[in-house]
Design goal:
Elements: H1 20-26, H2 30-39, H3 44-56, H4 60-80, H5 97-112, H6 116-129
Helix pairs in contact: 1-2, 2-3, 3-4, 3-5, 4-5, 5-6
């Protein structure tokens, strides 16, 4: 069979919605970050920031939910960008960080809820995707 080999991208990068990271940088409160997520629901960094704030204040269930939104939206986005289960999603590319922070946070929130298997899966997946994280 003659054909072209199908290759996985070595690195997958995604982008955040235009203006969302700048708005997030200007956010000074939880309400401001909520406003960013409301205006740009595709901003993965906003979901990660909401999760981090909730987790740091002992709201593990809420954190888990925020991180899961960022993780699932991010997984959809890296798949749309060509990722097919192999290759890196480098931390060094800033727009990837919202997804990667969501994945890390999901693992931390899972651990806080006693879900050690999920926490371990998330940690392993993060190491596979972004060894530079």
């Amino acid at each position: 069979m003659n054909g072209f080999p199908i290759a996985e991208p070595q690195e997958t990068t995604i982008e955040e919605p235009t203006g969302s990271l700048e708005a997030l940088d200007q956010a000074n409160s939880f309400e401001d970050v909520t406003g960013v997520a409301t205006r740009w629901p595709g901003c993965l960094a906003a979901w990660a920031a909401l999760g981090a704030e909730a987790l740091s204040n002992g709201r593990s269930i809420e954190a888990y939910a925020y991180f899961r939104v960022g993780y699932h939206r991010g997984l959809d986005r890296i798949r749309q960008a060509g990722w097919r289960g192999a290759g890196h999603v480098p931390w060094s590319h800033e727009p990837n960080r919202g997804f990667l922070r969501s994945l890390r946070g999901l693992g931390m929130a899972a651990a806080a809820l006693g879900e050690q298997e999920e926490a371990a899966r998330c940690a392993h997946f993060l190491k596979q995707l972004a060894p530079d994280a």
